[in-house]
Every structure is written in structure tokens, then in C-alpha cells.
Write a structure and sequence with these properties.
Blueprint (H helix, E strand, L loop, with lengths): L2 H13 L2 H16 L11
Helix pairs in contact: 1-2
InterPro entries: CmpA (IPR047764)
Protein name: Cortex morphogenetic protein CmpA
Pfam families: spore_CmpA (PF26301)
Length: about 45
């Protein structure tokens, strides 16, 4: 998972912003299914 996405997800969880969490979750699934190469942290 890209670091920028991790940071935004962490911020959304801390604020308990459900709308933002859903949006970022959708972004992550789109990113994963679009065939982009994973970065090193994706295996964690």
C-alpha cells in the first residue's frame, strides 16, 4: 500500500470519518485491481 494512502487512512480512522474511510478503501481496491505494480510495503 502506498505511504500516502496509509497516512490518509490513518488520519481518517483517527477522525472516525466513515465517508473518507469508504472513499480511501474504494481507492485501494481500484489501485489493487488496476494491475499496477506493488511497492515493497504491499507485502506487509
Amino acid at each position: 500500500m502506498p505511504q500516502w494512502l496509509c497516512n490518509q487512512l490513518m488520519r481518517a480512522f483517527l477522525k472516525k470519518d466513515r465517508r473518507q474511510i469508504r472513499l480511501l478503501n474504494d481507492c485501494w481496491y481500484f489501485y489493487r485491481t488496476s494491475g499496477r505494480p506493488d511497492d515493497d510495503s504491499a507485502s506487509l
